[in-house]
Amino acid sequence: SQCLEEPQEELNITDLDEILTHLKKGHYPSSNWKELGLKLGLYDNTLSTIESNYSKVEDRLRECLAKWLQRADGVDAKGGATWTTLINALEQCDSGKPTAEPISE
Questions:
Q1: Which member of 47, 78, 84, 102 has the lowest number of beta carbons within 10 Å of its beta carbon?
Q2: Domain count, the chain
Q3: Residue 13 burial (CB count, 10 A)
C-alpha cells in the first residue's frame, strides 16, 4: 500500500476508494465522520452542508473525505491531504485510535 511507502505524499480524489477501504478494515465508525472532518481541517458549515445533502452516515463519511482530498477549507493548514495527516486525525478521535494503528504499520 502506498501509505507505507509515501506517508507524506499528497493524496487526491483517486485515493478515495483506498482510504475508505482502510477505514472499513479498521472498523472506523462512519457515524463519527463529523469529528474526523473537523480534525482534518474542514469547517463546520461544510460539514453541515454534507449533513443536509446526505442522509446515510457512510455517504457523509465518503463526502467528508472527498472534500478533504480536494483540500477544501483549512485542510492545508492541518497538513494537507496525506496519510500522515489522516493517521494523526484518527489518533485524535477516541473512536479512531484503533483504526489509525493498522494504517500506520
A1: 102
A2: 1
A3: 12
Q: Which domain holds residue 42?
A: 2-104
CATH code, 56: 1.10.533.10
Amino acid at 86: L
Q: Tell me the C-alpha distance between 61 and 43, whole Å.
A: 14
Residue range 77-86, pLDDT digits in tens = 999 999 999 9
Q: For the chain, which residues score pLDDT lower than 70? A: 1-5
Say which residue the cell 500522515 belongs to. Answer: 84
Instruction: Give CB contacts under 8 A, 24+ apart, made by 44-48.
Output: 46/72, 46/73
Are 34 and 51 in contact by the 8 Å Cβ rule? The answer is yes
pLDDT at 88: 95
Cα 34 from Cα 12, distance rounded (Å): 20
- Contact in structure between 89 and 96 (CB atoms under 8 Å): yes
